[in-house]
């Protein structure tokens, strides 16, 4: 991968990192738009497969996704650039907020701003759910796994890790 393409990959994931409030799942549609539709680095099914791997690998899903997409696009250097791009904005923002936290928290505007992120987070999570629904081929297996997963989440307080493992095992068995 040439330096110009690495530069584009870095700026793409830097932009994603700037809008990653609430974790990695809410910005998955943004990543999909950039990677699949805008730059055509991956196909939608390939991206969906990488997301599945990113969720099973230990670590933050956003960093895992950036690393896996970067690796697919530019090898090892692409993985490093993608991960750095997505982590750098959060690092800088958290460094500044931590430094000025006491001063900022006393200000009512700052507290209202933080509370304003909650509805946005819900909307971004809904967008991620729609993206997953659109990129998954609908079959009876998908419906069974989704139904059992929703049922387990609604009726029991199970750790999401075990639900993911159970869904993966069901996917292999079915």
Could you walk me through the main structural features you see in this protein, from its secondary elements to its overall organization?
- Helix 1 (3-18) packs across helix 4 (61-105).
- 82% of the residues lie in helices and 0% in strands.
- It has helices at 3-18, 28-38, 44-56, 61-105, 108-135, 140-155, 160-173.
- By secondary structure, the chain is mostly helical.
- The chain has two domains: 3-136, no CATH class; 137-174.
- The protein contains seven helices and no strands.
Give the % helix.
over 70%
Number of beta-strand segments? 0
Strand content: under 5%
Give me the number of helical elements.
Answer: 7
> Helix/strand/pairing class, anyone?
mainly alpha
The tally of structural domains comes to 2
Largest sheet: none
């Amino acid at each position: 991968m040439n330096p110009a393409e690495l530069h584009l990959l870095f700026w793409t994931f830097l932009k994603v990192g700037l809008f990653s409030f609430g974790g990695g799942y809410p910005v998955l549609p943004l990543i999909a738009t950039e990677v699949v539709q805008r730059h055509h680095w991956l196909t939608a099914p390939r991206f969906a497969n990488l997301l599945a791997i990113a969720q099973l690998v230990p670590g933050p899903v956003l960093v895992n996704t950036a690393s896996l997409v970067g690796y697919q696009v530019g090898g090892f250097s692409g993985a490093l650039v993608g991960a750095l791009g997505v982590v750098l904005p959060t690092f800088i923002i958290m460094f500044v907020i931590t430094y000025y936290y006491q001063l900022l928290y006393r200000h009512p505007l700052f507290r209202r701003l933080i509370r304003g992120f909650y509805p946005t987070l819900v909307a971004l999570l809904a967008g991620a759910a729609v993206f997953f629904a659109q990129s998954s081929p609908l079959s009876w297996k998908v419906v069974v796994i989704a139904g059992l997963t929703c049922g387990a989440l609604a009726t029991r307080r199970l750790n999401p890790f075990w639900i993911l493992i159970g869904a993966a095992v069901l996917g292999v068995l079915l």
